Amino acid sequence: MAKYPSIAITTKNGFRLIDASDIMYCQAEGHRTRLYLIENKMMEVNKKLKEVGELLGEETFARIHHSTIINLAHLKEYINGPSNLVRMSDGSELAVSTRRKGELIKKFIRI
After folding, report:
1. 23-29 and 85-88: which strand pairing?
2. How far, in Å, CA of 17 to CA of 103, rounded?
3. Which residues fall within 8 angstroms of residue 26, CB to CB, at 6 or more apart?
4. How many CB atoms lie within 10 A of CB 94?
5. CA–CA separation, 59 and 82 (whole Å)
6. pTM value?
7. Which entry of 17, 35, 85, 108 is 20 to 30 Å from 98 by CA?
8. How far is 101 from 111, CA to CA, in rounded Å?
9. What SS3 class is residue 88?
10. Segment 60-89, tens digit of pLDDT
C-alpha cells in the first residue's frame, strides 16, 4: 500500500501540515497552485505545480495535464472520447491531455 506523506504548506504565520491523502487534485494558477481537498476545501500555495508534484508520490498521484495533478485514490472514472476526462470523487471532471493519456490509463488499470 502506498504511503501518503504529509506536506508542509507555507502560511503567513509559519506552515501547516496537510496529509497528502486529503488532496484530491492540484491545479496550476500561474506561479501558484490550488490544492483541492476533501470536504470541499481549497488552499492556494506559493509554489509552482511542478514543485508541489515533487512533494507528492508518483505512485499515488498522476499528472494528467500540464496544469493538473490528481490523487489516484480519488479517481472514480476515466471517460474516453473527443475530450478525455477523469471524474473525481467529488464529481469534478478534469481534462486529460492526449500526451498523458497512456500513462494515466496504465496507472488507472493497476488500481
Report:
1. unpaired
2. 29
3. 33, 34, 35, 36, 49, 52, 53, 56, 68, 69, 70
4. 20
5. 27
6. 0.88
7. 35
8. 16
9. strand
10. 899 999 999 999 999 999 998 888 999 999
Cell of 108: 488507472
Cell of 17: 501540515
Under 8 Å between Cβ of 77 and 87: yes
**Which position has the grid cell 478534469?**
94
What cell numbers appear for 46 in the block? Answer: 506559493
CA angle 31-33-38, nearest 5°?
Answer: 175
Whether 33 contacts 26, CB under 8 Å: yes
DSSP H/E element including 102: helix 98-110
Q: In the structure grid, which three cell numbers stand for residue 91, read together?
A: 464529481
What's at 99, amino acid-wise? R
User: Rounded to the nearest 10 degrees, how much is the dihedral formed by the CA atoms of 57, 93, 26, 41?
Assistant: -110
* 18, three cell numbers: 496537510
